[in-house]
Design a protein that fits this description.
Number of strands: 10
CATH architecture: 3-Layer(aba) Sandwich
CATH superfamily: NAD(P)-binding Rossmann-like Domain
Radius of gyration: 17 Å
CATH class: Alpha Beta
Helix content: 25-40%
Largest sheet: 8 strands, mixed
CATH topology: Rossmann fold
Distance between the termini: 41 Å
Strand content: 15-25%
């Protein structure tokens, strides 16, 4: 099984690559700077590296890189810098999702390709009419006006939800929504919910990046996990430490 991972040099992306390799999977990555990959990943026999800026690839080039992949995983995000928040490309995640899906469809694979998108619990699943307080609605509205990455995350998830939809013949998808991201050195117990159980704005939980990577890898590799969450936007929280 081969998975294409974009955003592999990021804080969560390289953890996902390791989780997939630990499960015996082959991984293909598209990265602008291969030197930013940890050496053990860059030189792993089951890793193939494509040096390119994803959005600069032609449609035909991108389709060739997607061909033969059983799954596509995006851990793309915006850097928390002024340039990352307000510079270009402002629709990095959305444009990547659209182009990757178009590449999958251009190849017309015999079996559906899984698409797993890392997103955020601050983005609501409008298929479920998830409740949002008035105060949270106001804050999210300000985010939409002032923070381009928030809109990008919303539009990327909405493209899978409505553009690809639930009954696409060649693409199946899941959108993973972690809460406030933290760094941990190993996988710890975590829970997965169909919708947020707390306010992402006023009562945010914690989700370790390595737990996000573990769950994304489980979605890709484990059929039971996939069938449970396919076409949904599961939310991850680290379990509270035992007292």
């Amino acid at each position: 099984m081969t998975t294409l991972v974009v955003g592999a040099t990021g804080a969560t992306g390289h953890l996902l690559v390791r989780q997939l390799l630990d499960r015996g999977q082959h991984v293909r990555v598209i990265v602008r700077s291969p030197d930013r990959l940890p050496e053990d990943i860059r030189k792993h026999e089951n890793v193939s590296v494509v040096q390119a800026s994803l959005l600069d690839l032609s449609d035909a080039e991108l389709a060739s890189h997607v061909q033969g992949c059983d799954a596509v995983a995006s851990c793309l995000g915006h850097n928390m810098t002024l340039k990352g928040l307000f510079g270009h490309p402002r629709r990095l995640v959305t444009d990547a999702v659209r182009r990757l899906c178009a590449a999958v469809q251009a190849n017309q694979p015999d079996q559906p390709v899984k698409f797993v998108l890392m997103n955020t619990t601050g983005n609501r699943n409008r298929d479920l009419a998830e409740p949002v307080s008035f105060a949270e609605t106001v804050v999210i509205g300000l985010f939409r006006l002032l923070l381009p990455p928030h809109v990008d995350n919303e539009q990327a998830a909405d493209y899978l939800r409505t553009g690809v939809g639930p009954n696409n013949a060649v693409i199946e998808w899941a959108v993973v929504r972690p809460d406030n991201l933290i760094d941990e050195t190993s996988v710890t117990p975590y829970t997965v919910h169909a919708s947020p159980t707390r306010s992402a704005i006023f009562d945010a939980g914690k989700t370790s990046r390595i737990n996000v990577a573990h769950f994304m890898a489980e979605l890709i590799v484990d059929d039971d996990t996939w069938h449970q969450w396919q076409g949904q936007m599961p939310v991850l929280y680290n379990d509270a430490p035992a007292k």
